[in-house]
Amino acid sequence: METHDRPAENNTILVADDEQSILRTLNRNLTRRGYNVIMAADGQEALERAEENLPDLVILDLMMPKIDGLEVCRRIREWSQVPIIILSAVGEERQKVEALDLGADDYLTKPFGMDELLARIRVALRRSAKLKENSRKEDLLGFNDEDLQIDFARRLVTFQGQEVKLTPKQYDLLRYLAQNAGRVITHRAALVNVWGPEYGQESQYLHVFIGQLRQKIEVDPAHPRHIITEPGVGYRFKEAARP
After folding, report:
1. What is the DSSP pairing of strand 162-163 with strand 156-159?
2. Is residue 69 within 8 Å of 42, Cβ to Cβ?
């Protein structure tokens, strides 16, 4: 029989900390409870591991060499909503608040108890699973604007009453933008989420596909109404008009 702190699924956790003793302790305790553990000893390695492995949760120390935890948190949030738990030392209150503002989900102050960390992990994973379930339910509703409809369940797009023929990747990009309507989506976020981490720097690739979509779902592609350019940052898909 499983203990209450054993994960229902074999979740993967990325632990990023420059203190080897903390890495060893967390690796041992998390592995014992059934989690897959990936370790990183600096910020650069943490970003690389996050993109390569797409973990279910990240435990992130604020003060790390090469790239600090704040910047790691900011960059991960450009393309992922993975739960992030911050580890901070006493006296790092300002950085801790900034990390939460950047999108971190929770924090613990060193030294911390293992039972408390495990409890925070369970809460974060449950919250993440619930958000994913709600997202799946929203998928059934699709996107419905005045002249553009997207049926996520049937992968069907209609514009001004006519079915729009899209390639699989064009549809995946349109769906990702529509599911995040109203939010600014960075170039990197779109590339990583639609094509994969290895395409994170291929901005020109994205521009071509955006141009193709505009030709198919905009009345005037030169003055788009649905896919709005955010100069130097990315794109924003216009929210559907409320009935």
Report:
1. antiparallel
2. no
Alpha carbon distance 106, 85 (integer Å): 5
Which tens digits make up the pLDDT trace of 118-156? 998 988 888 888 777 766 666 666 888 889 999 888 889
For 85, phi then psi, to 5°, come to -110, 125
Q: Which residues contact 176 (CB under 8 A, 6 or more apart)?
A: 185, 190, 193, 194
Structural contact between residues 175 and 157, judged by C-beta atoms closer than 8 angstroms: no
Cα(187)–Cα(230) distance, integer angstroms: 10
Q: Which helix (H) or strand (E) holds 150?
A: strand 148-151
Span 188-206, pLDDT tens digits: 888 888 888 778 788 888 9
Single out the residue in 83, 104, 136 at which a domain terminates. Answer: 136
What is the C-alpha R_g of the chain? 20
pLDDT-wise least confident of 40-54, 103-117, 161-175: 103-117
Count of structural domains within the chain: 2
The dihedral through the CA atoms of 76, 78, 83, 84 has a sign that is positive
Question: For residue 18, what is the DSSP state?
Answer: S
Enumerate the β-bridge partners of residue 197. Answer: none
- Answer yes or no: is 242 within a domain: no
pLDDT tens digits, residue range 2-48?
334 444 458 999 999 999 999 999 999 999 999 999 999 999 999 99
Among residues 136, 157, 192, the one where a domain terminates is: 136
| Residue 229 shares a structural domain with residue 175 | yes
Task: Determine the Cα–Cα distance for residues 21 and 230; give it in Å rounded to an integer.
Answer: 44
Domain that holds residue 95: 12-136
What is this structure's pTM? 0.62
